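Morning. Coffee machine broken again, so started the prediction first thing and wrote up yesterday's gels while waiting. Chain of 161 residues, entered below exactly as on the submission form.
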Amino acid sequence: MARTIKNNADYFSHDNDMRDDERIKAVRRKFGHIGYSTWNMLLERLCRAENFRIEYNEDSIDIMAGDFHAEPEQLKEIIDYLIKLKLIIQQGEIIFSQTMITRFEGLFRKRKRDVERLSEAKTTDENNIADDNAQSKVKDSKENKRKENEIKEKGNKENQP
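Came back before lunch.
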């Protein structure tokens, strides 16, 4: 069975001048290092999340607050400010970073190409995958003939008086 395509990533690039972005400077000015570290931990969580989206409600805030070692009220205030600055987009009870999604479009295109390339390697029988190893085909063929002969011999012995 084919492996499912991942809809997240193992890592994300961190620009070496991220702290100099005007919106990040505003976060740093308002919340200090706590705001900046919360922003980065939120990016990490989004990167691991399915389709780079996470729930944003009272329960998820409590869970993230425990993970981020922050008070839930402060975490909500920081995330709401990130939303206000459009660093994070909120749609109902879901939040995401459009910038992150855009950055990973190339990765998803590559994954899709890899899956398509592998599916072309299938033979007409969906249960078999094309194999260039002729040696294993010969071995399988010999094994099948040996089994057929054993079955015939067994049948002949049973039919003999």
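The helical segments are 22-48, 58-68, 72-84, 98-103, 105-120, 134-159. Going to sketch it on the whiteboard this afternoon.
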